[in-house]
Backbone:
């Protein structure tokens, strides 16, 4: 993997202004989802200027054109940063046996790539929806703090703190990172995270997230959960609770972490309606949601959810479908 300090930046794209910078690290499959995230941010922050960055190893002409079309709106800029896939080959032996791709480490190059664009940047996963103003976050004085993060769920925190033998009993979810670029670079966080993973990656359940927590142990600022409100749909659906169980105003960013996402219309959860609202405003609005499970794992979950709703026959049909999909995968 090339040294992170040697990553080049196109000086022709560098501009200083009052934009709030947001960055995503996605592959082509997630541009549709990211589009809804961006639309939700813009709806709730109409007066703010934004620069949206995407980092990827490959972007289709279709998605590139859709993404860049956002810059036709007043106060919006877009930047696509194509990365060399060979940068991440070293991680493949550690991610090959999991559902994670080595591209998850793309976020580690964010500070190096964006250091000439801005001194602060908000990283977001593409399964997040914005539900309110980000003014408080944008006005947060990071001072000498390296990054602002949000704690993970209590059970996850307890388990990962013990497993990773963290000195401080705090563990964050890396789906939202508000990065102080100069402090991150000065502290060498990216290279330390890579070193931590290459040394102990086989025991990391959440590869880059665990590594970041090890390196930033006692060095990250924890902020309110409203900035990365974790919401899992599986528990709701297995309990036949299709309503979105969150109080209005409790979350500025809802993070639909977990194996079921709100663009899976087949799941029947009310979060699908919320996603549809923002999806309809995005540059990918003409693309359909997932009307049926897309793989054997989703087919099995769909069977479970139907059973919980009392639809026994339909549940059995989907379980049979799951078995066929698994056999032919």
Residues:
């Amino acid at each position: 993997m090339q040294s992170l300090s040697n990553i080049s930046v196109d000086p022709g794209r560098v501009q200083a202004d009052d934009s709030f910078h947001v960055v995503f690290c996605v592959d082509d499959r997630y541009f549709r989802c990211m589009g809804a995230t961006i639309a939700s941010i813009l709806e709730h922050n109409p007066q703010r200027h934004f620069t949206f960055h995407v980092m990827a190893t490959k972007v289709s002409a279709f998605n590139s054109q859709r993404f860049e079309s956002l810059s036709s709106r007043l106060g919006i800029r877009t930047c696509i940063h194509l990365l060399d896939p060979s940068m991440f080959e070293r991680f493949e032996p550690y991610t090959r046996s999991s559902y994670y791709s080595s591209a998850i480490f793309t976020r580690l190059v964010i500070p190096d790539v964006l250091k000439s664009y801005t001194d602060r940047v908000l990283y977001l996963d593409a399964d997040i929806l914005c539900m309110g103003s980000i003014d408080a976050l944008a006005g947060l004085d990071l001072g000498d703090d390296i990054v602002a993060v949000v704690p993970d769920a209590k059970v996850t925190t307890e388990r990962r703190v013990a497993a990773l033998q963290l000195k401080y009993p705090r563990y964050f979810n890396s789906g939202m990172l508000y990065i102080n670029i100069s402090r991150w670079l000065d502290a060498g966080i990216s290279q330390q995270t890579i070193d931590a993973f290459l040394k102990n990656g086989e025991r990391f359940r959440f590869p880059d997230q665990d590594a970041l927590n090890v390196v930033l142990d006692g060095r990250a600022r924890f902020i309110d959960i409203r900035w990365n409100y974790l919401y899992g749909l599986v528990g709701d659906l297995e309990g036949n609770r299709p309503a979105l169980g969150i109080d209005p105003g409790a979350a500025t960013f809802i993070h639909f972490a977990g194996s079921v996402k709100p663009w899976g219309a087949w799941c029947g959860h009310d979060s699908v309606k919320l996603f549809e609202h923002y999806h309809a405003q995005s540059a990918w609005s003409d693309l359909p949601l997932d009307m049926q499970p897309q793989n054997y794992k989703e087919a099995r979950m769909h069977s479970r959810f139907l059973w919980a709703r009392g639809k026994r026959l339909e549940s059995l049909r989907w379980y049979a479908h799951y078995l066929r999909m698994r056999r032919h995968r």
